[in-house]
Design goal:
Layout: H1 5-16, E1 23-39, E2 42-60, E3 63-69, H2 74-90, H3 114-118, H4 121-137, E4 140-157, E5 162-178, E6 184-191, H5 199-212, E7 222-228, H6 230-244, H7 247-251, E8 277-279, H8 295-298, E9 309-313, E10 316-317, H9 324-330, E11 341-343, H10 350-355, E12 359-373, E13 378-391, E14 394-398, E15 402-406, H11 408-413, E16 415-418, E17 422-424, E18 427-429, E19 432-442
Parallel strand pairs: 7-12
Antiparallel strand pairs: 1-2, 1-4, 2-3, 4-5, 5-6, 7-19, 8-9, 8-11, 9-10, 12-13, 13-14, 13-15, 15-19, 16-19, 17-18
Helix pairs in contact: 4-5
Length: about 450
């Protein structure tokens, strides 16, 4: 079905009409995904999917029941609503339940690109061909993924709230490995717009990394000055974004942002003065929805209008994510979940940061990151796809990958320089030079 705002509203209102009491919330998600996957210098799969799902949550007296369906006929909607109410009756009351949101005013976000929405395998073919041609020319093994999506999303409830959003996205990633398997390079780019993604340029960066990272030597674990490329910064900041920015966790003493004796550290200078991080759903470089998502990390904040929020300003912690229940307990305003993260950068270049480093490590990216201690925000993970030793302001050569145990909070406290911010993953971030970054052991990752 070719969804639009009117069709989405009619479907949601029809579902709501079958409610027999209590609050009812409906979310409608549909869209397409088209992709091309390649490995060992050849295309392995090309796929196209079209999906549609309607989720109904029925709430009453603190109890809730949720059901999802793809049957949007009147009979299907009636049956789904009845089942949600049956499930509601079986659940215990939630002492932290909040009422459905009243009517909200959602911002208009321009996140749709016709070329991204309509691209198919033929439109991606030139980019994939250029990547594979480069890999063969350089005697590398290429693997990667090229995907574009179109998404229709709508929400509504029995209190008259309604929102609709149309978005698109395109993402290309490439890994280039040497024939002997000792070198690996990687690069990627995401954007709502098809024209922003340059597969040939991405493949070129991955190939250069792959060739330069071959035959690495070992270096001892320890504390190093690091230059983290934007992809590596993104991996660390995701650890802060998902869960650690919770006001409730801070107030209850479970967070790096907890104040000794109770409460949070909002208002304290916790980072280097150059650090400013905000969420900006209006930035055209990042994906965003007009409303905040709920779920495991968002708590009961689902449906709140997204807006600009400054979380850290010139090193000072300015805000933490507060869901609606905790806002009620603390008599504060709820905040949307952090999404569309933008970090202000500096004036340095990557070459300049390297030149200013007597001894350190240049990190392409991290992977397999896990939380170690939420009260210090310590994470652990591995470097991958290009780790390089810096000596006397120059790249001295590739080194064997290492495991790190470090907190992004400490990394942001020890900042010594930044480049301009650029898109990285689904954020906009600079490369960062930071001192005393802890590596604990060697890794067999390539």
């Amino acid at each position: 079905m070719n969804w639009n705002r009117d069709e989405a509203r009619k479907t949601i209102e029809k579902a709501l009409s079958f409610s027999t009491g209590g609050d009812c919330e409906v979310a409608l998600e549909g869209g397409i995904s088209s992709h091309t996957r390649f490995a060992r210098n050849e295309i392995t799969t090309s796929g196209f999917t079209e999906d549609l799902r309607l989720t109904i949550t029925s709430r009453k007296d603190g109890r809730s029941g949720t059901i999802a369906t793809d049957d949007l006929s009147p009979e299907g909607l009636r049956a789904a609503l009845a089942r949600a109410e049956e499930l509601r009756a079986l659940t215990p009351a939630d002492p932290e339940a909040v009422e459905a949101l009243p009517k909200q005013d959602y911002p208009a976000l321009e996140k749709y690109d016709e070329a991204s929405a309509r691209a198919r395998a033929a439109d991606r073919a030139a980019g994939v061909k250029a990547t594979l041609t480069l890999a063969r020319k350089k005697k590398l093994m290429a693997a990667g993924f090229f995907q574009n999506t179109l998404a229709h999303r709508a929400i509504g409830n029995s209190k008259g709230n309604f929102g609709y959003h149309l978005s698109s996205g395109v993402e290309f990633s490439a890994t280039m490995r040497t024939e002997d398997g000792t070198g690996s390079g990687w690069a990627e780019r995401y954007s709502p717009r098809f024209s922003d993604v340059d597969p040939k340029g991405i493949a070129r960066r991955a190939a250069e990394k792959g060739i330069r990272s071959a035959s690495p030597r070992e270096v001892p674990p320890g504390d190093y000055t690091v230059i983290l490329e934007p992809a590596a910064v993104a991996s660390l900041l995701q650890g802060l974004q998902f869960g650690m920015m919770s006001a409730r966790a801070a107030d209850e003493g479970r967070s790096v942002f907890s104040k000794q004796g109770g409460g949070s550290r909002i208002g304290e200078k916790m980072f280097h003065e150059s650090v400013t991080i905000r969420t900006d759903p209006f930035d055209p470089r990042v994906p965003a929805s007009p409303w905040s998502g709920g779920g495991f990390f968002g708590g009961d904040g689902g449906g709140l209008p997204n807006r600009n929020v400054t979380w850290i300003e010139k090193g000072v912690l300015k805000a933490l994510h507060t869901d609606r229940y905790w806002a009620r307990v603390t008599k504060t305003e709820p905040t949307p979940f952090p999404s569309g993260v933008v970090m202000e950068g500096g004036r340095a270049t990557l070459e300049g940061l390297i030149a200013s480093t007597e001894k350190g490590l240049l990190v392409t990216r991290f992977w397999y990151i896990r939380a170690v201690n939420p009260q210090t925000a310590q994470l652990t993970g591995l470097t991958r796809d290009g780790l390089f030793l810096i000596e006397k302001g120059r790249i001295a050569g590739p080194v064997v990958n290492l495991r790190f145990n470090e907190s992004p909070v400490v990394m942001l406290q020890n900042v010594e320089g930044m480049t301009a911010a650029v898109p990285a993953g689904r954020m906009v971030l600079p490369a960062i030079k930071s001192r005393d970054f802890t590596f604990t052991s060697k890794s067999d990752a390539v």
